[in-house]
């Protein structure tokens, strides 16, 4: 019953939650860096005129977006050993998160680049700039401005998605809650503490997103968080 | 080897169909309930009551700020402690409906806010009641803005329904998990699971894209 909600047990388990918090934080950062790399490559492929480059990127993005992360995670977790690649659960989890978020990030960057008005590109061409110069000097500096808030939104999604790694027994925040729930039969204490820790991360990232949107003078993040 | 595995997989197609049925039932029921609840919350949120607005806003933030897996665990393990007995299916429906309602509430509220105030004032001046204003003036216009993200949200909901496998419901993902214990070929098994989701989700993604394109085209006309 909730009347004997035990704060004492939570305090006892605080070191475990501290470790879980740190693990969630750094594995999210690593996955997000990976996702950025995947997203940039996919987006670059997607923006090419050559169908040979465009098509694989499009298929990949659609396949990721139309299937759940959990199925993708199990695909790698049960599938990689089949290919002779045996990785620790943690790496499988980071790989799954990076490959999943990468597809969404590719779309965010693409939307940012396409939001730059045609006139800017034409002005670049008229000034005799090459494609690379136009990209580097005209389009990207403006596109980065509009993509930062939605990228932070995607970071929020990624942090929350990382909870699924507990299902392949990666030691992170949700896992810490599960341990407390099963060791002491205290699900309320375990999962409410876990939820509180995620809320700290959520509000931190959210205020960062709102702040950056105001600072960059663009509209704040949409509803997909 | 692969033929043998394929044969073995063929044998588990009734299980796979049941899993697909469970996924569709779960997401279908909570999609309908979540849409109704989400619309109600969205209308309440923009009703002008400050207190209601911030109460709903706080709840939406709490749900958006925590992983769905944690929410499912909370509902499945804590409600029984409060004396509410529920099975995994009901817990899954409650969790998914709540999640859908929170996101849809935000989508609907954004749609309602996008309707110019002049429209509401015109409706007021024509002597329409509050209900008539909502139903005949505001909501039809809000729907045009809300429809594409709403369909996108349904896709997310169907995908999120895979997480309920964590409390033991045999949905499509859980079936994959069960089958892979017998047929040790994760690539094949989860590729098939993925195809199952793809068949359901991809048409919706295409629909959302088409709606979005149509809406931005319509928007362009208005601006001219």
TrEMBL record, chain A:
One Pfam family linked to the record: BPD_transp_1
Chain ranges passing through the membrane: 20-47, 59-78, 90-109, 185-205
Organism: Phyllobacterium trifolii
Domain annotation ABC transmembrane type-1: ranges: 21-210
One Gene Ontology term from the biological process aspect of the record: amino acid transport
Gene Ontology CC terms: ATP-binding cassette (ABC) transporter complex
Top-level taxon of the source organism: Bacteria
Compartments (UniProt record): Cell inner membrane; Cell membrane
Functional description taken from the UniProt entry: Part of the binding-protein-dependent transport system for glutamine; probably responsible for the translocation of the substrate across the membrane.
Keywords: Amino-acid transport, Cell membrane, Membrane, Transmembrane, Transmembrane helix, Transport
Protein name per Swiss-Prot or TrEMBL: Polar amino acid transport system permease protein
Primary residence: membrane
Molecular functions per Gene Ontology: transmembrane transporter activity
Automatic annotation (TrEMBL), chain B:
UniProt keyword terms in alphabetical order: Cell membrane, Membrane, Transmembrane, Transmembrane helix, Transport
GO annotation (BP), single: amino acid transport
InterPro entries: AA_ABC_transptr_permease_3TM, ArtM/GltK/GlnP/TcyL/YhdX-like, MetI-like, MetI-like_sf
Domain ABC transmembrane type-1 positions: 20-208
Highest taxon above the source species: Bacteria
An example Gene Ontology molecular-function term: transmembrane transporter activity
Keyword Transmembrane: yes
Cellular location(s): Cell inner membrane; Cell membrane
Name the record gives this protein: Polar amino acid transport system permease protein
Organism whose genome encodes this protein: Phyllobacterium trifolii
């Amino acid at each position: 019953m909730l009347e004997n909600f035990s704060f004492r047990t939570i305090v006892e388990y605080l070191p475990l939650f501290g470790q879980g918090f740190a693990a969630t934080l750094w594995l999210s950062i690593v996955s997000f860096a990976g996702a950025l790399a995947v997203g940039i490559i996919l987006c670059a492929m997607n923006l090419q005129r050559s169908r040979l480059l465009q098509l694989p990127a499009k298929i990949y993005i659609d396949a990721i977006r139309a299937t759940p992360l959990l199925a993708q995670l199990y695909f790698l977790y049960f599938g990689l050993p089949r290919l002779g690649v045996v990785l620790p659960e943690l790496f499988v989890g980071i790989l799954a998160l990076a490959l999943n978020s990468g597809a969404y990030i590719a779309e965010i960057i693409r939307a940012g680049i396409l939001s730059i008005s045609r006139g800017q590109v034409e002005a670049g061409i008229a000034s005799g700039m090459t494609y690379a110069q136009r990209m580097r000097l005209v389009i990207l500096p403006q596109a980065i401005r509009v993509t930062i808030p939605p990228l932070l939104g995607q970071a929020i999604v990624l942090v929350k998605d990382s909870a699924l790694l507990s299902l392949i027994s990666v030691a992170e925040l949700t896992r810490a809650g599960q341990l407390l729930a099963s060791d002491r039969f205290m699900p309320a204490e375990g999962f409410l503490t876990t939820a509180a820790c995620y809320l700290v991360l959520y509000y931190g990232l959210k205020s960062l997103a709102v702040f950056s949107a105001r600072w960059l003078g663009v509209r704040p993040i949409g509803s997909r968080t | 080897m692969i033929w043998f595995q394929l044969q073995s997989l063929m044998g588990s197609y009734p299980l796979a169909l049941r899993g697909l049925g469970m996924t569709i039932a779960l997401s279908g029921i909570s999609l309908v309930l979540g849409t109704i609840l989400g619309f109600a919350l969205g209308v309440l949120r923009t009703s002008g009551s400050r207190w209601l607005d911030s109460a709903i806003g706080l709840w939406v933030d709490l749900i958006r700020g925590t992983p769905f897996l944690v929410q499912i665990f909370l509902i499945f393990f804590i409600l029984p402690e409060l004396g509410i007995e529920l099975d995994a299916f009901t817990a899954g429906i409650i969790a998914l409906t709540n999640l859908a309602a929170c996101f849809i509430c935000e989508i609907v509220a954004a749609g309602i806010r996008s309707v110019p105030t002049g429209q509401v004032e015109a409706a007021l001046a024509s002597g329409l009641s509050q209900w008539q204003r909502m139903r005949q003036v505001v909501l039809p216009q809000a729907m045009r803005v809300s429809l594409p993200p709403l369909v996108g949200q349904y896709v997310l909901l169907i995908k999120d329904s895979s997480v309920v496998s964590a409390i033991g419901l045999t949905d499509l993902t859980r079936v994959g998990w069960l089958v892979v214990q017998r047929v040790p070929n994760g690539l094949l098994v989860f590729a098939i699971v993925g195809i199952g989701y793809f068949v359901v989700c991809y048409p919706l993604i295409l629909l959302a894209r088409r709606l979005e394109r149509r809406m931005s085209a319509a928007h362009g006309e208005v601006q001219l």
